Each structure stands twice: as structure tokens, then as C-alpha cells.
């Protein structure tokens, strides 16, 4: 549903999940245990060349060199916030740029990864859509963001403990690559990130919400909703014209019934647009039949190219109280990295403008 990924003569070494590596070693006449060794070099020792895989026979290393490549993520720039948030702008092999953010919490380090170069969803308040969608990322290009960040954290003895797939792009428009990424991340022989410590965020690609519900995963699901009704949501999120609000809510109910897991509804508050008491009351009515739901209220980030203003602090608390009065669990997102343009797409947009 997105734009096909970068065409290559060879796959990236991170493109393959555990089952695919097992198939590869078998098809290449190697012993089954070699898959575990390769996985160990990639995700435990985190080497960036085949020559470093010292316990593999030279013939096997040569075979890997002949058939695979490592992902090239060249650091264009890196910003560190006063709160410890680090934002990277990486250049890919085809010269496109993507963003990755590492956030420090009192419970550990989380990473926000990107799944596409740009975005075509078109949310009117988001910098990620500026310039449209260039292409999907390959699975290995998503994986490489985590490996690169973890390699840097290795220097201080820290680790990535949670992942949010909320960076640039729509993960459910690059669905198979996102699922392959998840399979690599959660495998016990790899980075072994707990499924419940991973969150996938979608703008509401309805068919793939049903598909995701049937994946039998414990990964968290977040839905960017940003409005309590069809008309307002279509103005803010053009994707709503493809997948109407009523169909999205039905898909969410299916997900909850099928998985028994809650959904987090992301709601970006925009001054005098979607932040009035009547909006909160309407949203509470929409969600009242979904007890396993939670609303994450997000003060909208300032984006120079967009014309939205932040909701006053007192109005944010009023919105939260109305939802809670309607028995809807609601929290206000803690801001991180606001001093380094850490909102999705802002750094890339600046880079694109300066590169013209």
C-alpha cells in the first residue's frame, strides 16, 4: 500500500528473521546451528562486518558477503535534549534521510523508529507528511535503527528496553516489513525485547488492524484518532476519507474482542480545533463501549509549516477530567525533546529544506 522499498541486488543482512535464517543455512548446505551463530553476531555481539564473525568458517563468511549486505546508516546529525532525549538524522544508501529518537525514562531507554521515508497519510498537523512519501523502508533498515542505537548504548552499559513504532511513516502501509521487524526484535536469540514493551501506532489503516488482531502477538496497539467524529477527523486526517471513522471504531472493537488487549487512542490537542469540552464529551460517548481503551492526550507540537496552536494547560486538564467523568481512562503525554525538534519529521524537513 506504500511505495515499494529501495531495490537492491542483495538483501540486507537484517532483512531476515530467525525462521528465514534457518531456511537459508539449510538451503546453503550448512548445519542448523549456524543460524544461531549468525543471529548471535548480528544481535548479541552486534558486529557490522562479516569478517568479524570469527567462529564461522571462511567459506560461510564468503558466502554471506556474496549474498548479503549490511545496512548503511550514516549519521547526518545528532541532537541531544536537556532531558536526555537523543534524535538522529540518518542518511540511507540511496541518500534519503530518516529520523530515529532514543528517549530516556526512569524505567529504561525507549527508541522510536521510522518505517517509511516520508508519509502519504497527510495529517494536517504533522511534519512527517511534508514532501509526501518517497518509499517504504526494507525490514533491515528498520532493524538497523535499533541495532545502531543499541551499539551506542553499549558504550555506557545500557540497553534498549522498549520500542515505539511511531516515527516517520505509517507502519500499517508497510505492513510486512513492520511484522518482519517485530519478529526480529522479539526473538529470544536476538535483541529479545518483550512484546509488551513494543507499541505500534497507526493512523487507522482498517484492513491491517483486523490483520494485526489475528497475528497472535502481545505487542501494544495505538491508534491516532485526533477527533471524536467523522467530519472533523476527515479535515485533520485525510486517511479518514479512505477508512471512515465508523469503520475504524468497528475494527478497534474487533481487535479488543479478539486479543483481550487494550488500545491506546492518541489524541493531539489543537487549540480551538478539537480541544473543546463538547469534543471531550463526544469522544467519551464514542469510547464508552470499549472498556479496554485508554486516551493519550498530546499537546500538539509547533510545526512552522502548519498553523495550529497549542491548547492552554488548563484546557488540557479540563478535557482530561471530562473523559474521566465519562469513565474513560486518560493521561497527558509527557513531552520529551521539545528543544531539539523531536516531533516526527521536523528534523528531516529542515534537512530537506537546507538541501534544496
Which terms would index this structure?
10-stranded mixed beta sheet, 356 residues, DNA polymerase, domain 1, Probable dual-specificity RNA methyltransferase RlmN, two-stranded antiparallel sheet, rSAM_sf, tRNA processing, alpha/beta, TIM Barrel, elongated
Describe this structure in words.
With 356 residues, this protein is an alpha/beta fold. It has two domains: 13-67, DNA polymerase, domain 1 (Orthogonal Bundle), CATH 1.10.150.530; 74-354, Aldolase class I (TIM Barrel). It is 36% helix and 19% strand. It is built from twelve helices and twelve strands. The strands form two sheets. A ten-stranded mixed sheet has the order 1-2-3-4-7-8-9-10-11-12, sandwiched between helices. A two-stranded antiparallel sheet has the order 5-6. Helix 6 links the parallel strand 8 (198-202) and strand 9 (220-224). Helix 4 (139-154) packs parallel to helix 5, helix 6 packs parallel to helix 9 (245-259) and helix 10 (277-287) packs parallel to helix 11. The protein starts with 17 loop residues before the first helix and ends with a helix. The model has no long low-confidence stretch (mean pLDDT 91). [4Fe-4S] cluster binds at residues 119, 123, 126.
Produce a short descriptive summary:
With about 350 residues, the chain is of the alpha/beta class.
Instruction: Estimate the strand proportion.
Output: 15-25%
Count of DSSP-assigned helices = 12
Overall mean pLDDT stands at 91
State the distance separating the first and last CA atoms: 28 Å
Number of strands: 12
Binding site for [4Fe-4S] cluster: 119, 123, 126
EC number: 2.1.1.192
Binding site for S-adenosyl-L-methionine: 169-170, 201, 224-226, 301
Active site: 99 (proton acceptor), 344 (s-methylcysteine intermediate)
